Amino acid sequence: MKIIPSESDQNQFLQAALRYVRRGWLVMPLHGIAEGRCTCGDLGCDSPGKHPRTGRGLKEASTDENTIQNWWATWPDANVGIATGPESGFFMVGPDGQAGIDALAALAQQRGSLPSTPRVRSGGDGRHHYFSWPAQGGIKNSANHNGLPIDIRGAGGLVVAPPSRHKSGGTYEWEVPPQEAELAEAPAWLLEWVRSGKGTRKKRRDKETNKTNQLPQASHADINSFNSFLRTDPPANQKLLLTVQPDRTEVETRAIAYLGRCPPAISGKGGHNQTFEAARSIVYGFDLGPETGFALLMHYYNPRCLPPWSETELRHKCSEADTKPFDKPRGYLLAGNPAPEPNNSFVRTPEPARSSQDDIEALPMPPPIPWPTLPHEALHGLAGEIVETIAPQTESAPVAILGQMLVAFGNAVGRGAHYRVEGDRHYTNLFLCLVGESSRGRKGTSRGRVMQLMSQGDNEWCLNCVASGLTSGEGLIWAVRDPIERKEPIKERGRIAGYQSVVVDDGVSDKRLLADESEFAQILKVLQRDGNSLSPVIRQCWDTGNLRTLTKNNPARATGAHVSFSAHITRLELLRLLRDSEAFNGFANRFIWLCTRRSQLLPDGGRALDLSPLGVQLNYALASARTIGEMVRSKQASELWHEVYPRLTAERTGMHGAVTGRAEAQVLRLSMVYALLDSQATIQEPHLRAALGLWAYADASARLIFGVEVEDPLPGLVLAKLQASESFGMTRTDIHNAFSRNIPAAKLLEALARLRDRGSARCETNKTGKPGAPAERWYALRTNELNEQIASSPERQDSGGINSFNSSIRRASTTNGEDVVTL
């Protein structure tokens, strides 16, 4: 009799391997890591901990559990490998290190978000995204795909799986485990990018080959260490060009300088040819590829063109430049200091004489992005009356009071009023996050005033349906769970005659829940935990209200849940945590992000307010709203909706586009709440204008928080220079000189301003004793400094734990006579 050890007796590698084969994935043992070296014993091993222990390698990958047991009984310390391709049903996209992660994020921002799918954090701090194998196949293995630090593993490939060890001492860990997210289909744009491009194919390991006759293959780490690698990519004319490629940062810097010397394209003066030549020089001549080439052309060439090219046109030029045959070898501009070739079809404008504008120390820094303003239309009806009554007696921002009032009322209404969009129903549950520059915005006091008023409208809802402290998807489901039944046997004379359903938990009858998360940073940290199910459950709350997880031991589920969110966070925490979590894709655009800040000081607090008249109106509006079912738009509102719909659904780029990707749905839900506050089942034009006004503020807030443009590579290049300077820092002149003064001073200052605004760099001003302005010295802001800033903020020292972001109302008239409320 063969004794199979229990899971608790099995080592972690064997446990993981068995879980993978039960999913139908082909598994094999790999050499492990011992004392920082590969267990194969080869001191020069080029794939430590990543190549098979079995003699026939991938050909022996198996789903047989007995084979798996025998393998790990023989090699208990073996890393776990999974064969990719149609046999296992998935392929892998693997950004290598932070550079690869940033590159993949930039692709997603430009072309469309990535779906939630199993994802691994590699031991080298890269990522492995698993996608289901497409029916058409056609995915090969590639390294540095399309010139980016992103690896592809397709047919005949291999991935190292958790909990394998890495030579760096780290381990492979699941960020999104397969039990939380099924294998997702790769977006069409990603499949096209994977299939159409090319990279460096991995050489097979051959122990029989005389290694002294081979050139060593450089890993990504080697490339980064020595800032060069041997390139043997044959050009179109089949002649072999052997060059040493410089560090990519240096190449991009030189390419930017080259573009600065290229004449711009002007319509009617050979603009198409001019732009194509510029694109071919960057994409093909500097060998930066179509993606990086597009980003550089978009930022450093297109603004000078008359008229500027559209993104689609410029992308087409870059793609054509990458694939169209050319009589020069790829990378021909990497050597020397090339200048653009003259184009007789364009008469270049003479360069102006150098002036004080070329002095980077004398130029003013670009101002921060302006604070959003709230259109007066957003203060419509009862919601506007509430804000204008409370605002003078609180330090809270009017937009914070307004947002929390709409969220609270929309949740208290419940799961009755709805609006149909094709086969889907939209309800009045909203997700709101108030974002302040610091913790001095007084976020929580706006909530206190709103809850004081809501208690007069529906005290039972305040007592039973408002909660905080979410830590898992299972906990959220439990708060709004359905009755739980269990089948139990019916016994007759000691024998089972049948089964009956027995209710073991009555569930929750009131499915309304307002998650009041004053420490939203804690939620974002929870989302980063391996195996946590909170993110997909929160998305289910917004989408359908039907909640469940795939956890085997969790019988709880919820149907018709009416969950809303009211969250608070500082901008610094948000940028630090949201970018590092999987929440950014598909999670953030379900929230309405509102910038808030304190606008008045009330040392003794605001005076007490008699809110009972407003409470009576609110009670009546709630009672009326609960009798309403399907909602519709009036004729005037429909005409306005048709007018604004193209703008709401227009494609947007960058982080701003990612977090505002549900603009039309958010405006719809806001307009429903405004109508219900007026006790109406029909959305009128003023209700839609009110929703559009608040969304305009939210859209401007997202621009301020996350930025709007396609990612510009220059801030990253400047940040790399600052990081290299470590604690010494750099003056403006130092930075200018670091780029050989090839980057225009104004562009460098824009990059510094971007780093300043997103909290990646700080500036210290020192008196030099010389005439003129004080000298600035810039430093890269490290993670520990960010943590210190957050830890030292007053929010962490507030004994009451209630903080809010506020502002007073200042009215100004526009040219057309409309009032605008400025925060």
Secondary-structure blueprint of this entry?
Layout: H1 12-21, E1 27-30, E2 33-34, E3 37-38, H2 65-74, E4 79-83, E5 90-95, H3 97-111, E6 119-121, E7 127-132, E8 150-153, E9 158-161, E10 173-176, H4 188-196, H5 220-226, E11 229-231, E12 243-245, H6 248-261, H7 271-285, H8 289-300, H9 311-323, E13 373-375, H10 381-390, H11 398-413, E14 419-421, E15 424-426, E16 431-436, H12 443-457, H13 459-464, E17 466-467, H14 473-479, E18 484-492, E19 495-505, E20 512-517, H15 520-527, H16 534-543, E21 562-570, H17 571-578, E22 592-595, H18 612-625, E23 632-633, H19 635-648, H20 654-659, H21 663-677, E24 682-683, H22 685-706, H23 713-725, H24 732-738, H25 745-757, E25 761-766, E26 775-780, H26 783-791, H27 794-797, E27 810-813, E28 819-822
Parallel strand pairs: 16-21, 16-22, 17-20, 20-21, 23-24
Antiparallel strand pairs: 1-4, 2-3, 4-9, 5-7, 5-8, 6-7, 6-10, 11-12, 13-28, 14-15, 18-19, 25-26, 27-28
Which band does the percent of strand residues land in?
Answer: 15-25%
Strand order of the largest sheet: 8-5-7-6-10
Tell me the distance between the termini. Answer: 77 Å
Q: Mean pLDDT across all residues, rounded?
A: 79
Number of helices: 27
Low-confidence stretches: 1-9, 202-246, 344-357, 786-823
Q: What composes the largest sheet?
A: 5 strands, antiparallel
What is the 3D form? globular
SS elements, strand count: 28
Give me the Rg, rounded: 30 Å
User: Structural class of the secondary structure composition?
Assistant: alpha+beta
| Helix content estimate | 25-40%
